Amino acid sequence: MNLEKLVSVVQTMIIEHDYPGFEPRALKLGLPDSVNNASAKVFCEALGHEDVYVKLAALRWFQEKPGMGKGYAKAIAGLLKAEDPFVRREATHALDKLNVGSDEVLALIADLLKDPDAEVRKDAARALGKLCSRRKTKSEVTAQALRDAVDDKDHEVRWKVQKALRLMGEYKD
Fold first, then answer.
1. No. of helices (H) and no. of strands (E), the chain
2. Helix 85-97 × helix 103-111 angle, to 10°
3. SS3 90
4. Per-residue pLDDT, 173
5. Which of 59, 62, 108, 111 is the most exposed place for a label (fewest CB within 10 A)?
6. Sign of CA dihedral 59, 63, 69, 72
7. CA proximity to 86, closest of 63, 120, 51
8. Is the domain of 90 the same as that of 110?
9. Residue 66: DSSP 8-state
């Protein structure tokens, strides 16, 4: 299995599932076993592919196999700055599943609390709460970013931010 085969399978599946009103970026592809059993290296290469669907398939594969993704956390974290909001969201989910809570990654996720897309901000708050609650030491940068986001214009984001702060022991009514 190589990257070209993965790209071919993903693009074919997207075409096969297409219908009016379909948002292919939201589709969580059930990859065939021949692809699903490929090496983590192939999926890491897919993270850098130009096709957004290939990136999403790779990110979701790492979410399903977190033990395989630890060595690729830096490549995944690089997608937190991707142009596509679905990619930013799935990269956040993957880092959460991989339990990557380094200061560098937390700072990148905290930057997403200012994202123009409310769903990205909501996912960032959720991930920060979970990742920070698992840490032994407090991340003041993350706590401050969450405190700054507590007045977000979206009520769901505000709720997720408050929950994250509670998980960190930082929320004050």
1. 11, 0
2. 150
3. helix
4. 63
5. 111
6. positive
7. 120
8. no
9. H
Tokens of 131: 């990742």
Residues 124, 150, single domain; the answer is yes
Last residue of a domain, one of 51, 81, 100: 100
Q: Tokens representing 35?
A: 């692809």
Task: Kindly state whether residues 23 and 94 are assigned to the same domain.
Answer: yes
Per-residue pLDDT at 8 exceeds 90: yes
Pull the structure tokens for residue 38. Answer: 């490929």
Residues 66 and 134 reside in one and the same domain:
no
Q: Interhelix angle for 118-133 vs 140-148, to 10°?
A: 140
pLDDT in tens, 43-55: 999 999 999 999 9
Do 87 and 109 sit in the same domain of this protein?
no
Three-state SS sequence of 102-157: CHHHHHHHHHHHHCCCHHHHHHHHHHHHHHHHCCCCCCHHHHHHHHHCCCCCCHHH
82, 100, 118: which is the final residue of a domain?
100
Q: Which tops the pLDDT comparison, 170 or 98? A: 98
Q: Tell me which residue range forms the domain holding 94.
A: 1-100
What's the pLDDT tens digit per position in 98-137? 999 899 999 999 999 999 999 999 999 999 999 999 888 8
